[in-house]
Amino acid sequence: MYECSVQRSSFAALSIYTFEKQARDFYNIEIFYRFQQLVKATERYLADEMEKEKVYVIYKSEEHTKNEVRPRKYLVLVDMAQENYMCICAWFQKDGILCVHILRTLIQMNKHTLPENYFIDRWRPIERKEVRNATTFIPAELTGSNNTLRYNLLSKCFC
């Protein structure tokens, strides 16, 4: 039998941060690429620590706010004891992916790994192992004793 699989380690990391490598391992391909864009966007932001390892204000650098009428600032709350990060934009609560503001805060704190609870099951890859016959490359579910299923699938193709 022949099994199809994708090597996840072949996806290139754009940064040196461990959380990007974690995302490569935990997220499906599409979400990983979205996460990479967020990691790349952290370069445009600056962070000010308002309260030591608890409250951070994240904002775009001057160079990136030239054309904005009213530059925005984002408040990120950090609970180091429970490794909990919360941003006022609530992107993680809405989409299930950490926002650029939290990622920038992590970089500011020199913390490059994320707890696994920030990689939700919704965005994990689905294990799809397609088992095929080694000589004919026909999927295993279409061969053998499953003739009725095979007949139904083939008859739909020619209708």
Automatic annotation (TrEMBL):
The keyword Transferase does not apply. Keywords: Metal-binding, Nucleus, Zinc, Zinc-finger. One of its GO terms (biological process) is regulation of DNA-templated transcription. This is Protein FAR1-RELATED SEQUENCE. Putative transcription activator involved in regulating light control of development. One of its GO terms (cellular component) is nucleus. It holds the Pfam family SWIM. One of its GO terms (molecular function) is zinc ion binding. Residues 74-110 form the SWIM-type domain. It is found in: Nucleus. It comes from Panicum hallii.
